[in-house]
Design goal:
Largest sheet: none
Order of helices and strands: HHHHHHHHHHHHHHHHHHH
Distance between the termini: 35 Å
Number of strands: 0
Amino acid sequence: MLFTSYFFLYLVSMLSVGFLIRGFYRNATNAYYFVIPIFIIFYVLPDFIDLLIGQKFLGPSSSPNMYIALSDNKTNIIYNIYVSIVIIFFTFLARKKTRFNIQELVKSSEKILLLYKKNKYLFWLILLLPSLLIIASGEINHYYDYLNRDRSEAPPIHEIVTKVILIANLLAAIILARSFLLIRKYQSYSYLVPVIFAILLVIINCYIHGKRSIVPIYLISQFGLLYITNALSRKKLSIMFIIMILIMFSFLSFYGKNLSDSFITSIQSLRIDFSRDYSLKFVIYNDLLNDNKILPFSGASYLFLLTFFIPRSVYLEKPYPYAVYFTNSSFGNFGGDYLYGWGLTTSFVSESVSNIGWFGLIFFPLFYFVLSSYLDKINSTTTHLIAYIVMILLLVIQPIAIMSLIIVLILLLIKKNKKFVFKRSNP
């Protein structure tokens, strides 16, 4: 049964990827063209790489509890079947739902050009804002060392700066998309000037932010915007995708964390940061199949999300972020809230299961379906882009890490209620 579940999972994944590639070159676009690839990369590909290198990942060496969960055959079978069903469901929706044709892509491009034209100075001010805030704080010494920076000693302004950087890098992605659109339209490379300055500010912002996650977040945002605006031809966009992968690997080599001289050891170490299958399996084993609850009570981390803005000094019993409880549970302290100063990376998917049990497995794809359906009624390229980014990031990090983007998206969804007119295409 275990072998069959793995075979089915890999088969479903390959068929889904084939469908997406075919639609990509036919200008098909909707939320699932962004969600499915990331879901497969983080929830299926890691296990497949384990198969190729002949060494199954069983969690961090410091966590025997993770080893037990990932070794359990029943857990792996449930996981494989569940992920397969989610991929089938999302692929079905990607095929069934209406999507942009080339005329709609042109309209998206025009909206991006207009958005920048109306807010040009604001865009550049927000891009510069992280640097200005750091300089004004007088704490610039903290940022001299990137690799060995003690993030527990970050200045108070740093928490605000990291939230601003999420928005600033998104605006930089819009600036680059606009420039490529104008280059494609007028065949003039003078529009590369803002590209150079925007990329320079993105590099500075990523340096200030200090966490690796900000780099793939920006790259995903940039690729998504180039995709939905048709700023580059599909051939050039494919080349850009390869360039982005090379940039990511170069950055990882520079960063150096979790890398060693052994290729297999490096793969296993990076697995902790760049896969999410292990966290969902751990949750399935403990929260669903056994009576080891990750959270102190059901809904605890959701309560934290609803009250995140309330100071702990005011709300003494306020729960902690989900990653705190997950990290404690990985060491056997289930429901514990000891603050290690670091944490294992979690996701919206595993957090749903820990909060609402078996229904969490249904709630995750259902939430994506409802949000995607609502987006069909929204006539805003910016809203679509931010929604796609949020949906992607929720697959790989906990909601509180991108709360600034979530708040922006909520405000946009409330404001934009104009019917979005699609035309059908059949990729």
